[in-house]
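Re-run with default settings, no changes from the original entry. Doing this only to confirm the output is reproducible before filing.
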Amino acid sequence: MEQKSKKILFWTIFSIVVLAIVTAGIYILFIQEKKEQEPTSDGSTQQIQFQTTKESVARAIQFDVGQADCGLVQVSKDGSFETRKDNFNILIDAGTTSNKPSQTDKKNIEDKISNSFVTNIDLIVISHLHADHIGAMTHILNSSKFTFKNTTCLFNWAEARYFGNKLSSMAKTMFNDLKKKNITLTDSNYWANLDAPKNRLVDFGDNNYFSVLGGTNVKDDNENAWSVVNRMQWMRKSILYTGDLAGTLSSEGVAVDVPKKHYSELDCDILKAPHHGSVTENSNGIPFLNKVSPNEVWISAGVSDKYTLPDGEALENYSTVHVSDANIKGTEKFGNPKSLEQIKQDLIASKPGLSEADAQKQAQKIFNAWKKCNEWVKLHPTANNNNRGFGDINCNLNTIAFKRQSRYN
């Protein structure tokens, strides 16, 4: 009898132990799965709240900074940007055309921002770490014209980690200055992996917001592929900011930097053209533009024989997806109307010692690169024409109207 009792006790204890192990295993797997499902962040995960009123207005400006990017989104609580103190200011990049920008170039960007009634910069967005997107950022951070009270900086933390010691000295200096200013850092990878509407980094109330759609860990040696993608929505009108969005495409023609869960949010009224209107590295392709379906396109590019942007093929693609000529806008005139001989003579004048034969070869290459764009301009004379003027593109989101509103609201 005693032997039988011992056996029962043994099997009872054994069963309890096995049950405990199995239960613990299931719990660990559940917790692990939950961790994998929930995005993690190296920085702040706090949503920014800015309370607006029925008098509030919003606008967006794409500054003319040459072959670079610098944009501003402003929301004025009381309806008057001039008051400054009641503005919520989002600075999206502060790029320069050169890796070694002059003081004049940096001062030009500083003045453009300050003259737009900006004192405190509430949110800084760094789309990616190329000079044409961050070239003047350190200058801005150290300018006496701006304050950085309760400022947040959104960037792709995974990009900075991936490139590590390969980061430019410009990028390293910028990150040091962000820390010196005690600016709160937040990770685009965290926000882009949240489902909507949790991906709204800034909530203005009444379904107005600034959200994060892209800027994930793509593990790509091309820095453009890491670009942060944002959507500004105000009064059912929207702008899509894309940095230099490029690289490997998903099966649906969108760069893998943007999770598929956000494809419906790509639809917008105004598209800030990826990569300055380039078609290289899968930028501005028809599948992507069909997803975006914009009413208007803004192109930030400069007069440059080197880059020849916007690309004629990109302009054709905008027309193909039914963006009207009048709604294809650039910070500079499209195309290069110079003749082959003019381009050659300019090269000889700018490059002492360049032989006639080499100048002819280089000029022919530049002329051919501009050819498709020049042909498009001749067929679309009302696009980006002199009636609009050139320079900064400014849009009041309260008053602008489109024949078709974006499908996503």
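Confidence is low (pLDDT under 50) at residues 29-38. The chain has three domains: 1-38, 48-334+383-396, 336-381.
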